[in-house]
Amino acid sequence: MKYKSIFLTKSILTAFILMLHVGCTMKLVEDQSAEVSGAIIKVAKTTDAFLLNISVTSSSVDGSRAFDNYAGGYAAIENELISLGLQNQVRPINKYAFEIAEIALNKWLEFAAKHEQNDIISDTSINEMRVTMQDIFRAMLIEDEGERYLMIE
Fold it and tell me: Of 19, 86, 11, 74, which Cα lies nearest the Cα of 47?
């Protein structure tokens, strides 16, 4: 009888320690996920602000939308999108976030190339790109949140 009590106590203690360990592991994943979510939001805000700035502060009529005026901004956002892709690529539970980051980068490069080639960009193209990038960033955040919920289960 005494041995059964000791065995039961050890089993309960072991189960408790395992639950604590699992809880810590989930917390680390949540912290990492929150960090990536913050990075996604930061890049989304920077991208939208850049596009909005082109739309509001320049005109397609007077030549102020020349690509050279915005080349530095395009490069800075390209750099941010590459960084975001790398962050998503190394996450162990990630399935689609890297692919979505690659789509964002490719869309951004296409938009920049179109602007460079034409040396001008219309309000319609800017607005379409804003919507496209917002949709892509939304997909990234949904993927990130989905991974968080999968880890909790």
Answer: 74
Nearest to 46 by CA among 130, 141, 139: 130
Q: Is 139 strand, coil or helix?
A: helix
pTM: 0.74
List pLDDT tens digits, range 112-142. Answer: 999 999 999 999 999 999 999 999 999 988 8
Tens digits of residue pLDDT in 45-73 = 999 999 999 999 998 888 899 999 999 99
User: Tokens at residue 1, please?
Assistant: 């009888």
Q: Which residues contact 46 (CB under 8 A, 6 or more apart)?
A: 76, 77, 80
